[in-house]
Amino acid sequence: MQIAIVGAGMAGILSAIRLTEAGLTDVSVYEKADRLGGTWRENTYPGIACDVPSHLYSYSFHLNPDWSHPYSPGQEIQAYLEDVARAHQVDGLIRFGEEVVECAWKDQQWHLETSSGLQDKVDFVIAATGVLHHPNYPEIEGIETFGGSIFHSSRWDHRVAIDGARVGIVGTGSTAVQMVSAVVDRARKLSLFQRTPQWIMPQENPAYGEEERADWIQNPQKLQKLHTSLSELFAGFANGIVDAESPQMTMIADLCRQNLEVKVTDPLLREKLRPNYRAACKRLVISPNFYESMQKANAELVTEPIECIETRGVRTDDGRLHDLDVLVLATGFKVDAFMRPMSVIGRDGKDLSQVWADRPNAYLSISIPDFPNFVMLNGPNGPVGNFSLIEVAEMQFDYIMQLIDLVHSGQCREVSATQVAMDQFETERVEAAATTIWSTGCRSWYLDDRGIPATWPWSFDRFRAEMERPKMVAYDRRG
Questions:
Q1: How far is CA 262 from CA 272, 398, 427, in A?
Q2: Claim: this prediction has a pTM higher than 0.85
Q3: What are the tens digits of pLDDT across the range 94-133?
Q4: Rounded CA gap, 27 and 159, in Å?
Q5: Measuring CA to CA, how many Å separate 6 from each of 82, 339, 357, 362, 457?
Q6: Of 25, 94, 303, 345, which one is least surrounded by beta carbons within 10 A?
């Protein structure tokens, strides 16, 4: 059986390992870049770290006793992914520099073509293309006229000098918050252009000691216990956010409010940093020192809307010109792209770009009707947010493997979700989304074009149960 994996990030590496462990060795991983790692390869901005604890943001079958911090920096995560791929001997399956541009279903096989012209035919495709990888560039008048250095946070230009420079950051999400704390002591002036303030969850991040790490090496059962306890903790958080009135949401709101009240001493700055929506309505931002960083003498919070960008800097609506040497766009990603712009043509010539013309969706975030033997990891409407996407992907892959087994064992040649199952899932999902914290009145990247959260709206326990085994009545199986 021939299987293609699109993407060599966290989920693609997982897929390659699990498939080879199952004895399926005709596996190719197509990666557009020259290195594996996905978002951790592409994002190298100062201060980058995962906002999920490292001991949870780890493969359950390859726990790492040597993380430097509870929330480890991005370069450590990149090194970890590379180490896992080598240790499980799947790095040799990756075809680097081969971006899949077309994937078409013909004669009960997927026909793939890459940007270099390479062609392949496979029985199954696993799209592990990730969510946060297509940068979202803001439409600001005059952006092309800026005379200094300008780049998106996910395309950080390390040739540009930050020390002693006047640095502007557009955006206030997790990326911007991490950058502010990392850059403020290096810049001569730091200007943070804020459209919407964020609730900041306090979180200390002290380095692990050598004795602590040595204990995990010598006693791997302790490391496993830590992984399990963190999983249970974050499952409780995930269960809480699907009920906007839950005790967990009340506790989180109190912690965020106390953090703002205690940490920010200037009453004017405090009110500028105070959101007018509920905590966790947007993705919850965690930081040990953002508020302290914004109170430094060389830091300025700019709340006036941006009017335009000029050669010397950013002009705001009050007429003021903010002179800058460097402008960083921490403006997020096109989170509805998934595997696009890759052309995916399913049964009877059905074009995924047309199927998803309004918005992307998939049954259980994994399968699309009339796209047989094509599955996704971390696809549309799955669990995203403040929990481990590695844990999510592992559950999803166990589910996907059961679909692959149907074809591999000869029970069918084609398997995909039925349209009835897709429609019923979507109807129930939209109804359930109304009671989540994400629907309490804020703008966020979780919301689709209708203002409905495009995420898993039920408990994490329900997700785990759904991923145990496919309901065959929901699948169209053809011989």
A1: 15, 45, 43
A2: yes
A3: 999 999 999 999 999 999 999 999 999 999 999 999 887 7
A4: 38
A5: 17, 8, 22, 17, 27
A6: 25
